[in-house]
Specification:
The protein has helices spanning about 1-10, 25-35, 40-55, 65-85, and strands at about 95-100, 105, 110. The chain has four helices and three strands, in the order ααααβββ. Helices cover about 50% and strands about 10% of the residues.
């Protein structure tokens, strides 16, 4: 998954050219999966999504339409990886991208913004 984002997708999306994920990101993902009470395929799914959003820093310097395209490509590849590892699993509801004046995140992992904080222009 990390190789797909860092190498394959960086050829498609210019915003990913100088993005990288660290060993710390991978270890955090593994730790989150191990500590989760979700089914393994669902924990893997959410961990990968969280690492991609955090590790690739989507939302900081990526245009809105490009963010959605990158997320769609990542999710399509993630679904392929999950089906190859676990076979047929119940379809997970894809969370909505939340990015407004009061919160940011992907459901169900939404973080409220501090009152009075404004995006940089």
């Amino acid at each position: 998954m990390i190789g797909h984002v860092c190498f394959v997708m960086s050829n498609k999306y210019y915003a990913l050219h100088r993005k990288s994920m660290s060993i710390r990101d991978v270890l955090n993902m593994v730790n989150w999966i191990k500590s989760s009470k979700l089914p393994i395929y669902e924990a893997f799914h959410h961990a990968v999504e969280l690492v991609i959003i955090d590790g690739v820093c989507l939302g900081i310097d990526v245009a809105g339409s490009e963010t959605l395209a990158i997320l769609k490509d990542c999710r399509d590849f993630l679904a392929l990886v999950i089906s190859e590892i676990w076979g047929s699993v119940p379809e997970l509801k894809q969370g909505q991208l939340i990015r407004n004046e009061s919160a940011i995140g992907v459901e169900p992992f939404v973080i409220p913004k501090l009152p009075g904080s404004r995006p940089k222009k």
